[in-house]
Amino acid sequence: MGLRGIGGRSLKSRGDLETVTLESNAWSGPELKTRAARVIAFCEDLTVTQGAGAFTKLKLRPWQRRFIEAIYYEDKNGGRPVRTAIMSMGRKNGKTQLAAALALCHLSGPEAEPRGEIYSCANDRFQAGKIFNEMMALLAHHEGLARRTNVIRFRKEIEDLQNGSIYAALTAEAKTKMGLNPSFVVYDELGQASGRALYDAMD
Asked: What is the pTM of this model?
């Protein structure tokens, strides 16, 4: 993982990057027959970064598994009927960790697409940085993902050096967001937004 800014280090050579593959991993086995199963396997290959379970593999709670199964359900034609989902609950229930895991899943995991655009949105810069910081912590504990990503701290961005996808943390200046083409969006604290301009821009 090449970090830019204070404490950064240089990117690996292009030759090294070409050898980084995730074709054989915890979320690509033949036993994972559904899209949701692959997403769940990806999330559970990550490591808890803080709290009582720190440094152990993430184990999704039943409600988190049900949430993922509902979002990534596919119909008989392979389409995803659910395109927008809302999660609402009290603090300290793992929302940020799950959101960060799903953002990574779309950046570098089984839901990644070539040159995808993944965004987390919030009403201010501090809130926008929460998911970015959690993604950085998850990457720091996953060697395979860390080797293929580059973190740009001062812009709160992460780029996947294999598939060309980019993640960025955005704030509520919606007028600057109309030209984006999101693959996946997390809007944190949506209920506290003063208006819907940013939501509409990302939608």
From this structure: 0.84
